[in-house]
Amino acid sequence: ISLRGLPIEAAHHQLVSTSGQPVDLALSARVHTLTGGNPLFVSELGRLLAEDAAAGTPIGDAWPHEVPATVRALIRRRLRRLDSTTQAVLHAAAIFGREFPVAVVAAMVRAPAMTCLDELQATRAAGLVELSGAPGRQRFVHALVRDAVVADLSTSEQVRLHRAAADALEAAVDRDVQPAAIADH
Fold this sequence. Notes:
By secondary structure, this protein is mainly α.
């Protein structure tokens, strides 16, 4: 059985119900994009919205501003089940954003691409990563998963990984890499 996330209308209803707040459709669309419609993640963001509203925090275009602690805890739990090599691949992948190039991630962790593919298979089995429609690329199942992985990296580890990404992109055989992609890291 292939389970999919809630459609945007149902996610909007759940967000309103969980938060107890009126929710703009644009915000519901953003939450839907971040969560992929995952009912658990939508509920957790609804609870965060309720907390922010109770604290008088304005809800703007950038909201949600953080990954809820409950979501981070769930993702940490899944990560702990993975071996250290697989975790290192996942950390490197998270630096790129929701979608990432497998060959560059392999170069970042100094592993053959085939080894990296095996490690990513374990992350797919854990429900963290999925195949992308683009050749040579994979992606996190939800933007919140990627955000939670990055949030648990120390600042020095993030800097080290960004440097490794820039070096790997610069050394890439694929000359289609744009200087802006290197500069992003």
